[in-house]
Amino acid sequence: MTMGSNVSLSALSEHVGSAIVSLGWSSPTGEGDADVSVLLLDGNGKVRSDADFYFYNNPVAADGSVQLLGKEPTGAGSEDRISFDLTAVPTEVERIVVAASRYEGARFGELHDVRVTLADAVGENLLRFVIEDPGQVSAIIFGELYRRGEEWKFRAVGQGYESGLAGLATDFGVDIEDDEAESATPVAEEPAAAPASGAPPRATLEAVPAPRPPADEQAAPKKRTARPRTAKKKVTPPGAPVKSLAENDSWKQARLFPVSALKSDRDRETRATSVLLSVMAQVPRFGRRITAPFGAPSGRMETFTEVSLPHGDTPRRPDGVIRVERAGKLWTALVETKTNGNPLKSDQVQAYMDIAARRGYEAVITLSNDVALEGSPLVDVKIDRRRKHQVALWHLSWAEVAHQAQMLIRHEGVGNAARTWLLQDLLHYLQHDNSGCHGFQNMGAAWVPVRNGISDETLCQGDPRALEVVESWERLIRQVCLRLGGELGQKVLPAQRTRRGTDPGARRARLADQLCEEGRLQAELRVEGAPGLLGVTADLRTAKLRTSVDIPAPEQGYPLTWAKRLIRRLADAPADLHVETLVEGGTGGPRGTLERLRPEPADLLPKDGTTRITGFRLSLFKGMGSGRGSAESGFIRSVDDAVHRFYTSVVVHLDAPVSGRAAAKERATV
Q1: Measured between alpha carbons, how far apart are the two ends of the chain, in Å?
Q2: Quick check: pTM over 0.70?
Q3: Which of 139, 200, 311, 657 satisfies CB 3.0 to 4.6 Å to 161 for a cystine?
Q4: 389 and 360 in contact (C-beta within 8 Å)?
Q5: In this model, does residue 212 exceed pLDDT 60?
Q6: What's the per-residue H, E or C state across 503-538?
Q7: Residue in 140, 95, 138 with CA at minimum distance from that of residue 116
Q8: What is the pLDDT of residues 158-209, one digit of tens each?
Q9: In whole angstroms, what separates CA 226 from the centre of its chain?
């Protein structure tokens, strides 16, 4: 599409009762990012109330019409996805504005391939609009959905705002409490009421008291008004667990979902499917979180297991069925589950796709420990495009299920103690050694030959086994992001420095050749709030793992002040942390371990005194697991542990803001 053009959704697809809108971009540094927002507007072009403004502090509409699904990594950056149930949009809403904003002085002109795409309920991409020259703006309206009679249309907008998210929202009638107003006006936060059963939490609100009136007018106090707060809400870590009443550690708590009786893979698949689907039905917010990315509407959900469906001479029994009812219409998905390292079978999934197409079902969802990669399907199925009714094929990893449960339990809540307990028991089940639901846990048969080939320098470029290892490495990094993000309650995504339009297969082939030549697997993680990208390098020649982060030098101050302040902030970091000074021109600067630099921070400064310092690199090294699995001595476990240790022992100290008193103390002692 081009700027200003519009199109009817019904002219593009028959499956537009719900839609997924994706906003994407890439960055040459891999660090560029933005936040999406949605506004529901009435006939006057204004929100009906501040509740019609959906953003990071208010991601879900109570009626299910809007849900911000979060970010998905792509070959050249990331995409932020939004699920719309157009059948649930209130009739008085005539337009839906889809926008994104950057923060901390960043501009969209610094990003590449700024685009919006729209897919229908079966996952088919219907349209694409690329904003060729975003300019130096910090917020952009990408497009809008609007009504024309009984149908919905989409318009490509591309309008920029220099005033950012607050300015954009204010133009549409939202009453914003931005960061500047926060610092200038005393505020009193009201306690958040517990949400109704199953209802999503409302936006984080901040009450701003009106000026105190004269004494003779205080008889009828004015009601305080609540306004959406654009500052991201702070995550409160869970409190300390209540002390157990058990006599000793050998006593095990009774569990709703026991794992001791699981004897075979079939037992594990049956139990895991039943456990997951039952919790999805009983915890609506969790069920909605799992199914919304697959185009399911918001409504009453029921789940079933071991359903017999006719298919030729032999009936088929999918592991599960999910049905969602809204306004008398049903959305149905068949579920095929695998546990441990068992692969999905193409013929089995193909049969379920055919059954779903004949019966008018919307989707088939596969669930296993494997992680799907962009442009690389886990199973090959044939889709008959001649059929009027199309079925979408989606994949879900057990690691993603555990991630969503952890996010709701530890960071977001479900508004009900019983439902929280159900989620906790589900998470305990998934993490148990005997459940078989541990996520990606095997680097594959090519791992040992490739590792040995690199060690003895016999691995040649073009070897297909190197490509298998690169794909496994990408799956592992995606899972590491899920686990770290679940612990932190923050977005953690793989960052990829690739050119616009790069084919994922070509990118992996290039990385495979690089692995053969250099013997290293490399990745970068973008952690929300971190000062830079978190780098992970596995050197197969030395059997060492390196985790690192680059910190840019401050714009003001003196190099010695920077060095002293950095060493002081790392007071609780491991003594074997390596600190390297980055200098202009890329040549190596001074470096040393934290233990050696603590008494002499000045050793970080170049000896000539004239070389410009551009930043500092912090690195930790540890031994690399050799096994291809996730056991204690395995490679997968060693990578997961290395990233977790580096973030919790190093990066967290860099994130902590320095208070005014601490900053004054630093200035006095430097």
Answers
A1: 57
A2: yes
A3: 139
A4: yes
A5: no
A6: CHHHHHHHHHHHHHHHCEEEEEEEECCCCCCEEEEE
A7: 140
A8: 999 988 888 889 999 998 765 443 433 333 333 333 333 333 333 333 333 3
A9: 29
